[in-house]
Every structure is written in C-alpha cells, then in structure tokens.
Amino acid sequence: MDNQFFKNIESKTGVDMNEVLKLANSLQSANFKDEKTVRRVIREVARIANRPVSKELEDKMVHTITKDGSKLDMGTISKMINKK
C-alpha cells in the first residue's frame, strides 16, 4: 500500500498504522477459540483505538468471539468496541 495512504489514515484517526499492521500480522495465526488469546486481542485493539472497554463488555465480546472464532477479524472487534 501507499505510504501516503497510511499517513492520511493516521492523521484522521490518530491511530499508528504500524501498530495496526503489527496487530493484524499477529491475528493471522491466533486461536480465536482460546479465551486468553481473545482477551489479549480485545485489550490490544482497545489500546490502539484509545477506547476503554469495561469488564462487562470484554466478557460479552469474549463470549461472542470464542463461540464462533473463525469469523473474527479486527473490524469486528473494532465495531464491538465502538458500540459500547
């Protein structure tokens, strides 16, 4: 992808694209049926997005994701965090 594209996203969102890409790479081999892994991913996405996630919301997200971990992507987690 074009470097300017990432700079535009960073300036509009305040999210460091290097962190997003690093997280995306780590998701490729993650086991989303594993609760511990899912909690780590949720916390990392929340940190990158600078959005606090309550224990209750995290628990709901973990339940939803581990129930059908094969359909998870970063966009799904991001949407869940932003719904709070």
Provide an overview of this structure.
This protein is mainly α and 84 residues long. It has one domain (3-83). The chain is built from 5 helices and no strands. It has helices at residues 3-13, 17-27, 35-49, 55-67, 74-83. The radius of gyration is 13 Å and the shape is globular. The model has no long low-confidence stretch (mean pLDDT 81).
Index terms:
84 residues; single chain; 5 helices; mainly alpha; globular
Mean pLDDT: 81
- Taking pLDDT < 50 over at least 5 consecutive residues as the criterion, the unreliable ranges are none
Structural class: mainly alpha
Helix percent reads over 70%
Number of H- or I-type helical stretches: 5
Shape: globular
Number of domains: 1
CA-based gyration radius: 13 Å
Largest sheet: none
Distance between the termini: 31 Å
- Quaternary state of this entry equals single chain
What is the number of strand segments?
0
Instruction: Kindly estimate the percentage of residues that lie in beta strands according to DSSP.
Output: under 5%
- SSE order in H/E notation? HHHHH
Q: What are the SSEs and their pairings?
A:
Elements: H1 3-13, H2 17-27, H3 35-49, H4 55-67, H5 74-83
Summarize the structure.
The protein has helices spanning 3-13, 17-27, 35-49, 55-67, 74-83. The protein has 84 residues and is mostly helical. It has one domain.
